[in-house]
Write a structure and sequence with these properties.
The complex is a heterodimer of chains A (about 80) and B (about 210). By secondary structure, chain A is mainly alpha-helical. Chain A has one domain. The longest helix of chain A has 20 residues. Chain B is an all-alpha fold. Chain B has nine helices and no strands.
């Protein structure tokens, strides 16, 4: 498996979507090559960081404004 | 059986059941649906538009569309997928009306990801690792925000739906009308791009 193929398969490996035989090959490669294992670690860390950083919550004020907006407009739609 | 035990056994209405009530104009059902989805819809809007005022207006537009179009929900997908479809379409339409910000040219062979990305596997920076991510400072946050914002919208939306909202690849493919293979490819390339930015940062700011 060359580097390009390795990179291509990382996503499937992380989401456990690789067929068992390929997964085995991939795991063996990781055991043999610490550089690949390090790269995989950074790929997984990236997904966790994205989850943490990009997870915005609706601000309290916005929640209230949303409720008021929808009440007013739903009323209008119904009349 | 006490009343409390009885009420504990009452199952909350499913999203699909709520939508059916919304179709009949039930405001309480609509309020409940909004309560369940407002954070997710806001997050997606904010992630796409990068502007809290715009995200707020988009949320209003999305939920009003949910109310108006509830009658078109036929249960072919889950209510969640249906709502996310309205949310992504509305956010994308609004985004296209904005002045376009330059983003990376993935289609022009950006980093060659589509032809087999040759990552420098031998030269990975030493990244800090911790479940709590104590190292996550403002600088790194900004870097991630900016890298995500630089992704073309059709890549960014996939990243948000998968890595932030935790949707399945199948649900994302239904929401966006793409094949699962396209979803996987866009997700993977988005992650590689952000990973690359982080790796450069950690080379310049070694940890440990």
């Amino acid at each position: 498996m060359d580097n390009a193929k390795f990179i291509e398969l990382i996503g499937d490996y992380c989401s456990e979507a690789l067929p068992p035989k390929d997964r085995e090959k991939f795991s063996a490669l990781l055991r043999e090559n610490p550089n690949l294992a390090a790269f995989l670690g950074t790929y997984e860390e990236t997904t966790e960081l994205c989850n943490q950083v990009l997870k915005h919550s609706i601000p309290d004020g916005a929640q209230d404004r949303l409720t008021t907006y929808l009440k007013t407009h739903v009323e209008k739609l119904k009349t | 059986m006490t009343q409390a035990q009885q009420s504990e056994e009452v199952q909350p209405a499913s999203d699909e059941a709520l939508l059916a009530l919304v179709e009949q104009g039930d405001e309480a059902a609509f309020e409940e649906l909004v309560r369940r989805y407002r954070d997710r819809v806001y997050r997606l809007s904010m992630g796409m538009l990068k502007n809290s005022a715009e995200a707020e207006e988009t949320c209003q537009e999305i939920f009003l569309t949910v109310f108006k179009k509830a009658y078109t929900f036929k249960g072919k997908s889950s209510a969640s997928t249906w709502i996310y479809r309205i949310a992504t379409n509305t956010a994308l339409m609004r985004l296209r009306r904005q002045t376009t910000k330059p983003c990376i040219a993935v289609e022009d062979g950006w980093l060659g990801f589509e032809e087999g990305y040759q990552a420098p596997l031998e030269n990975v920076a030493k990244w800090p690792r911790s479940p709590e991510k104590e190292y996550l400072n403002t600088e790194i946050r900004t870097l991630i925000e900016n890298a995500a914002a630089e992704l073309p919208e059709k890549y960014r939306v996939v990243l948000l739906l998968k890595d932030v909202e935790g949707m399945s690849l199948d649900d994302i493919s239904q929401t966006l009308g793409l094949t699962v293979a396209s979803v996987k490819s866009r997700l993977h390339r988005s992650r590689l791009y952000i990973r690359e930015q982080l790796d450069t940062y950690f080379k310049e700011h070694p940890h440990g």
